[in-house]
Each structure stands twice: as C-alpha cells, then as structure tokens.
Design goal:
The protein folds into two domains: about 20-40 and about 270-465, Metalloenzyme, LuxS/M16 peptidase-like (Cytochrome Bc1 Complex, Chain A, domain 1); about 50-250, Cytochrome Bc1 Complex, Chain A, domain 1 (2-Layer Sandwich). The protein contains 17 helices and twelve strands. It has helices at about 5-10, 30-35, 90-95, 105-115, 140-150, 155-175, 180-190, 205-210, 215-225, 240-250, 305-320, 325-330, 365-385, 390-405, 410-420, 430-435, 440-450, and strands spanning about 45-50, 55-60, 65-75, 120-125, 130-135, 230-235, 275-280, 285-290, 340-345, 355-360, 455-465, 480-484. Strands 1-2-6-3-5-4-12 form a seven-stranded mixed beta sheet, with helices on both faces. The protein has a five-stranded mixed beta sheet with strand order 7-11-8-10-9, sandwiched between helices. Helix 11 (about 305-320) packs across helix 17 (about 440-450) and helix 14 runs antiparallel to helix 16 (about 430-435). About 50% of the residues are buried.
C-alpha cells in the first residue's frame, strides 16, 4: 500500500474539473485566513513523549468513534540495507508475523482478529510500519502484543524457508511480471549511482535467493532498537492512560545503542542518462526523472526547502486535478500525443528527491514525441508562468485535504508517523500548509526554469515486446511500498 502524506494529496485527489477554476482573487481571503491560523490554532491536540528507553510515543485523541489506531514505526527501510542483502527490511516485516518468545507463528494475527481488530504492515525505502485498528477498549492488548514481537521476534528456520518463497513470488508478481514496474526499478537504479534509493524495496532476486534466516535475525537485532522506533496512537483514548500503558509495555524494552548509517551522498549528475527497458507490453511508456531538492525543514526554511515546495505546486498545476495542464494539452483533443500523462514531485523522504514526468504515447505517436511534449509543458511555465487561478486551485485542494484527513483516525496516525520518520514536528502538516500558502506564481515559474535541464535528467522508455502465446496481461502497477 502506498503511504500518501496529506502534503501530497492535492496532487492526486480532490479533483473537480478544470472548468471550475475560480477567477483570480476570489479565494484569496480564505487562503490568507488559513495561512494565518494554521499554526496558531492547530486542529489537533497531539502530544509527544519520550519513554524511558528512548522510544517515542505520539498520541492523537479523537473521540468521535469508539475506535483506535495503534501503529509502530521503525525508522529503517530499504535505504538502510547493504549490498548483498537487499530486501531484508521487507523480509523482516514478513517474519515479524511468524512468532516471538510468547507466540507461535501466525498467533499474533489470530489474537488481533479475536480482539475485533484489523492489522497489517508495510515497508518502503524510509521506514517499516505495523498497525492495528481495534475497539478503543482493546488498545492495551495490542500494545502488549506489538511490544513483545518488537523486542522478541523469534521463529524457526523452517518458517523463513517458507516465507522467503512468498516474498520471491511477490517480486515476480509485482515487479518482474509488470512492465512498468520493471521500468521504474531500472530507472531508479540509473538515477542513483551511490545512494541506496537505487535499490528496490522488495530486493534483487539474486539477493533473495542468497538470503539466510540469520541475515534477517541480524537486521532485527541491529535496527529494531527503541531509539529507532515510535508508537503512534490515534482515536478514542486518554493521553495519560496511553502513556502509562506505553511505559508498562514498550518502556520495559532495554535501551540499546542505535546504529548510524553512512551518508552515501549522491554525486552530482553531469549529463543526461537514458535507458530502454524491453518487456512484453501493448504500449510504450515514458518516465523522465529530474534530480531536485527535497524538503528537509518545515521551519526556518532553507532556499532548497522553498524550491521543493514550489516544485510540489508545479506538479499539482501540471497534474493535480481533472483537466490540469498535462491532460488538457497532451491527452484531450484530436491532436493529442498521449493516452495518459502525469507528474509527481517526490520531495518528502529521508533520501534524495526526484520530479517525474510520465506518459503513454497515443496511437501513431512515438515516445520521442511524447517526451518533447512533456518537456514543452514545463518550458511553457518557465517562460510564461502560471495563472493565479491555478495557484489558488491547488492551494485550496491542499487545504481541503488537511480537513478530510482529520476525518480518519488512520489518516491522522499515518501522517504523524510519516512526519516522525522525517524528523519533523507533530504539527508538520500545519507548518507545511502555512509555507505552501506563501508559494507564489513567480516561485513556480522560477523552479520550472531551474531544475529541468538535461544534466539533471534520466529518461526511461518501455519498449513493448510481443507477448508469448498464452501469456497473461500483468496487473496494474503496484504501489511503491511493500505490504505484508
């Protein structure tokens, strides 16, 4: 499941159609009001604590329904692996369901179900997470269960031998049998030369073949320490009671030194990179990845943070709602060059950032023509700028996404955990919203002219190949995170 922060929601949701763009200036008063009150009057009463062993506890009371979401976040993901053991973070996520000193394999899930709860887990480049949504009065029970497997994950080699085959099949289905997934895997392995973001979350198949049970156990011993973890609870709970339960359960885990990753900074790119990926497919696909700055701070912003925010707005102007620029210019009309086109500003994460432009060429059009058309849309903004109505539209959608996210205790917990992983404060949503409101049309025009040169670009093209007789069409491309 892809874990989407509310910051990014404006790019993909809350669409209303281009014809509803408001005239310039009609939304200014409401946006200004939000910008001025977002930090002063945060909608939440979230509190954060440090347990005796260094583990973090974040609690968000929400008493609208007698339910609670309990999440355990570990600040370790695929980017913390070393060559030769890619995929081990995700494999460990699977093995966390296979037993502890107190529970037999599979017993954790059976007990959560008996409590009336639902549970799952997820791994991506930056983190691993585990969650349960349960009746609020069963919260302590799942805290006991999760603390036990965090500290005492234990299983026989035979369980690993079975589960590693499950992970391999997951790789085959989600990546090797999906042409676009193969393209993106190869693309990011080319974009990044030294940074661990170049590795697939599920791991390379050769590493999965060579992985041992002790590789997984060692990764658990090394990274699953209290100082690398946070418990997030949202729902119908009392903060003081949750804190007391957390100390009784998680707080009893002995503190250990937290490992430190090497920086592994990505060197400056010094020229355009281009790859072709040949896979059985019916249509070509183009993906253009530009190296851009990431958001690192939400207060006292550096110039790079401000540029990253402007890039997020640029992506929303291009592809943030039905009938946005890419759709109008490339997909609609008789002279269209694409069956679909999109953009994404991946500016939030522990590692480096990329801005991607993607598309499927229309019948009779080549990948080269689509590539040029995608470039032309960014170049047009760099030359002419954007309309004030476009800018206010995407800001309003972001504002709305903040409100809608608060309707879901799961959404609140996810957001709090995501921002903790990035070492941002618990009110990062409000702070980032305030910063977004300050992004101007001139800022968007400036970044469109600054970050889209060839020296920062890697282009991947899917070259369709004939399918073998009887070969089934692959499922839709999977999300970037790997789910249990």
């Amino acid at each position: 499941m892809k874990r989407t922060l509310s910051l990014l929601a404006l790019v993909a949701s809350l669409s209303a159609g281009a014809e509803n763009l408001a005239p310039a200036g009609t939304l200014s008063s409401s946006l200004a009001a939000w910008a001025g009150t977002a930090v002063a009057n945060p909608a939440s009463s979230v509190q954060q604590f440090t347990l005796r062993n260094g583990m973090q506890l974040i609690v968000q009371p929400d008493r609208r329904a007698p339910t609670a979401v309990h999440m355990l976040w570990v600040r370790v993901g695929a980017m913390d692996e070393v060559d030769g053991t890619t995929g081990v973070a995700h494999v460990l996520e699977h093995m966390m369901f296979k037993g502890s000193e107190q529970l037999a394999p599979g017993e954790f899930s059976r007990r959560v179900a008996a409590l009336g709860g639902q549970e799952n887990a997820f791994t991506n480049r930056d983190y691993t997470g585990y969650y349960q949504q349960i009746p609020a009065d069963r919260l302590r029970d799942v805290m006991v269960l999760e603390a036990d497997r965090f500290a005492h994950n234990q299983w026989p080699d035979s369980e690993f031998t079975k589960e590693i085959e499950v992970v391999k099949e997951e790789r085959r289905m989600r990546t090797e049998d999906n042409p676009r997934s193969m393209l993106f895997e190869q693309l990011f392995a080319t974009v990044y030369q030294s940074n661990p973001y170049r590795r697939p979350v599920v791991g390379w198949m050769s590493d999965l073949d060579a992985m041992t049970a002790d590789d997984v156990r060692q990764f658990h011993r090394q990274w699953y320490v209290p100082a690398k973890a946070a418990v997030v609870v949202a729902g119908d709970v009392d903060v003081a009671q949750v804190r007391a339960w957390a100390e009784e359960t998680y707080g009893q885990i002995p503190a250990r030194a937290a490992p430190v990753s090497k920086p592994r900074e990505e060197p400056r790119q010094i020229g355009l990179r281009r790859i072709e990926v040949k896979q059985p497919a019916e249509q070509a696909f183009v993906a253009m990845a530009y190296r851009v700055p990431a958001i690192r701070k939400v207060q006292d912003l550096e110039a790079s943070d401000k540029d990253a925010l402007a890039l997020l707005v640029l992506s929303a102007v291009l592809d943030g709602y039905d009938g946005a620029r890419l759709e109008r210019a490339l997909v609609q009309g008789k002279d269209r060059v694409a069956d679909s086109a999109g953009s994404s500003a991946g500016v939030l994460g522990r590692g480096p950032a990329v801005f991607t432009l993607t598309g499927v060429p229309a019948k009779g059009k080549t990948p080269a023509q689509l590539e040029q058309a995608l470039r032309a849309q960014v170049q047009r903004i760099a030359k002419e700028g954007i309309q004030s109505a476009e800018l206010e539209r995407v800001k309003t959608q972001w504002m709305a996404s903040q409100v809608y996210e608060r309707d879901s205790v799961m959404g609140q917990a996810q957001s709090l955990g995501n921002y903790w992983v990035m070492e941002m404060p618990v009110n990062a949503d409000e702070l980032l919203l305030q910063q977004l409101m300050q992004v101007s049309a001139a800022d968007v025009q400036r970044v469109a002219g600054r970050y889209f040169g060839n020296d920062q670009l890697t282009i991947g093209t899917l070259v369709p190949q004939p399918r073998a007789a009887g070969q089934a069409r692959p499922a839709a491309a999977p999300a970037s995170a790997q789910m249990h």
